[in-house]
Amino acid sequence: MAFLIRSTFDSCSANVSNNVSHFIEEKQQEEEVEEGSTDIKFDRNARAPTPNPLVFMKSKLVLLVSHELSLSGGPLLLMELAFLLRGVGAEVVWVTNQKPTETDDVIYSLEHKMLDRGIQVWSAKGQEAVNTALKADLVILNTAVAGKWMDAVLKEHAAQVIPKVLWWIHEMRGHYFKLEYVKHLPFVAGAMIDSHTTANYWKNRTSERLGIKMPETYVVHLGNSKELMEVAENQVAKKVLREHVRESLGVRNEDLVFALINSVSRGKGQDLFLRAFYESLQLIQERKLQVPSIHAVIVGSDMNAQTKFETELRNFVSEKKIQDRVHFVNKTLTVAPYLASIDVLVQNSQARGECFGRITIEAMAFKLPVLGTAAGGTMEIVVNGTTGLLHPVGKEGVSPLANNIVQLATNVEKRLVMGKHGYERVKERFLEHHMSERIALVLKEVLQKGKHYSHS
Q: How far is the C-alpha of 454 from the C-alpha of 313, rounded, in Å?
């Protein structure tokens, strides 16, 4: 049997999952042929086809402006929206505002992934971008930093474009609240934010710190792609992936694996996770608990960047002599193999937490319990005590997280029940069609506002 494994998108980086042979997509392709029109999608649980909620975007011209093109959450979410819009026949143009002058393999791969789907990729600073912005039915700015593009590129044309701008914001950190980034924010057609927590934070912070008012703001929770759900629900695929990844890490099938899957940075809390993991090992030894060997996996490493923070992580592992228990994996676009191979996801984002945390709902699709910080969008996803366990941010959260690791390590029934409840929660509210329906409502309103402005 051959396997194609995809997360939100196909992998474009070298990682262990590239060695997994490809899962054949004949069944999906047969269904697409039978369905015919791209304007109709089939709900596997329904007997009749349901209209794609984004079908009204057919033939609309949409300009997507991203502050960067990378493997981080914001650009990947915008790419996913680009694919959804192309799927219903919209004309989509992509520009990246901040692009390195030298060749970058990740950017090259992501751009060609878009080109292969019929998305036009243009220079952010060229006249083509300005002309497209003026003609577009809708302009979507991705992240707060993308706001600089309007002054730098549109210049005197900014006033014509602003009324048809939807601003998609994912940031929670204070340094994004600069007037040079968001001075046009009160005048755009709307802001779309991934969680209620983040929306409230932006409303309060812009008013108190910058003295500006947010435009009409829409909260849109994200959803898992159909491709990821197909892997998550395929028992044979998960078994193959689990065996392959564990073999590559040197982890036995009976061992327990706790993983944190995020780009390595202090804000994602890998350092505090490793401290909690080490503390859990001590607790198990002190209490003489009979548990399988436990391991910690950090997916999102990048030693090529030679960051001081990652060096600190590796030094900590060496000092505590837990090299045989901690495994670093390079950052990757393909998370499905790791979700299939682990037992518990740790979401340890610090400060105000994650704006939403896509990896959290992806893990729940794989029936994994989640140990998350009680902050940000995680609190809108994880039901404490039911689909996972929450702990405080900061150093105060280290011991509670350690205790939660021990609790799940010693109770297989709790892990399984939490994973089952998490999967049910995903099926109820965090699927691609849920996200499409929520985004469709926003786009309809924003398009209507743009039309009203142009007529007036």
A: 54
Q: For the chain, what percentages of helix, strand and coil (3-state, to nearest 5) are there?
A: 50, 15, 35
First to last CA, the chain: 60
Residue with token string 């026949």:
89
Q: Distance between CA 166 and CA 275 in Å, rounded? A: 41
Q: Which residues of 366-388 are buried (b: 16+ CB within 10 A; e: fewer)?
A: bbbbbbbbbbbbbbbbbeeeebb
Clarify whether residues 101 and 212 are in a common domain: yes
The range of the structural domain enclosing residue 156 comes to: 37-223+433-455
**Domain identity same for 450 and 407:** no
Structure tokens at 111: 């751009």
- Do 302 and 451 fall within a single domain? no
Per-residue tokens: 37: 């029109």
pLDDT at 237: 95
Residue 204: pLDDT above 70? yes
DSSP string, 158-183: HHHHGGGEEEEE----GGG--HHHHT
Residue with tokens 């985004």: 439
Q: How many CA atoms lie within 13 A of 142 on its CB side?
A: 25
Judged by DSSP in three states, 93 sits in strand
Q: What is the DSSP letter of 195?
A: -
C-alpha to C-alpha distance for 423 and 393, rounded to whole angstroms:
25
The 10 Å Cβ neighbour count of residue 124 is 19
Q: What angle do CA 328, 332, 336 make, to 5 degrees?
A: 95
Query: Over the stretch 343-380, which tens digit does the pLDDT of each residue have?
Result: 999 999 999 999 999 999 999 999 999 999 999 999 99
pTM: 0.85
Write out pLDDT tens, residues 84-96: 999 999 999 999 9
